[in-house]
Design brief:
Helix content is 59%, strand content 0%. The protein is mainly α and 222 residues long.
Length: 222
């Protein structure tokens, strides 16, 4: 967490890199797993799933299948019980087996390292692709999930309707060194402070720079 003496009065609200850096420093997220295939499959499992459930499903899956080669020879129904905690297990199992088969047959067992190639895989969108590129390949890639999309718009950094629009807008605002870290940090920020419902604005160090907080504060004063 950042130093408690660094209060909102010290913040330059026009410096988006500084604001993003504060979020990254306040809500760091570390990635213990960097293997491209495991990161890819875990991110697919994480879709519409809570972190703790994703972790259980991922641990179950990789305790039995260690590689794309092994998973490529599995049947979707073989995965159901293993990944059930992550939800939507029927659909995810089918996608995971398909991904493993494609990687094994078309990419010699190696996960591709470009957005264009990754998004050709079943169930892999730009968010998943960008997470893999940053976490596993150390590339400047900005993954936009519901937290990043919501918070960026709530703060007033962007005015976008779709995650893809948010990604492009944020890339123009932020230094590439922040593209990768901002996703995980905004996820933590969104779960702990800037929640979808009843955000804890009074505890937020960025409230003096937030359009949403400014708007609700004015309503309270009326």
């Amino acid at each position: 967490m950042i130093d408690e003496v660094y209060t909102s009065s010290n913040i330059d609200c026009t410096n988006y890199n500084e604001l993003a850096q504060l979020i990254v420093e306040s809500f760091p997220r570390h990635h213990d797993e960097t293997d491209p295939f495991r990161v890819l499959i875990t991110t697919v499992l994480s879709q519409r799933s809570r972190d703790e459930n994703t972790e259980i499903a991922s641990r179950n899956l990789f305790s039995k299948y260690n590689s794309a080669d092994e998973l490529s020879r599995a049947k979707p129904q073989d995965l159901y019980e293993l990944i059930k905690p992550a939800g939507l297990y029927n659909r995810k199992a089918e996608k995971i087996v398909q991904i493993a088969q494609i990687i094994q047959t078309q990419y010699d067992g190696m996960v591709p390292n470009s957005v264009d190639e990754l998004t050709k895989l079943p169930g892999v969108g730009r968010k998943t692709a960008n997470i893999v590129l940053y976490v596993s390949f150390g590339m400047p890639a900005l993954a936009v999930d519901t937290h990043v999309h919501r918070i960026s718009n709530r703060l007033g950094w962007v005015r976008t309707k779709m995650p893809e629009q948010t990604e492009e807008a944020l890339k123009k605002l932020l230094d590439p060194r922040l593209w990768g870290p901002i996703n995980g940090s905004m996820v933590e920020f969104g779960k702990n402070i800037c929640k979808p419902i009843a955000p804890k604005c009074d505890r937020c160090i960025l409230n003096s720079c937030c359009e949403y907080y400014s708007r609700i504060s004015k309503k309270k004063d009326e």
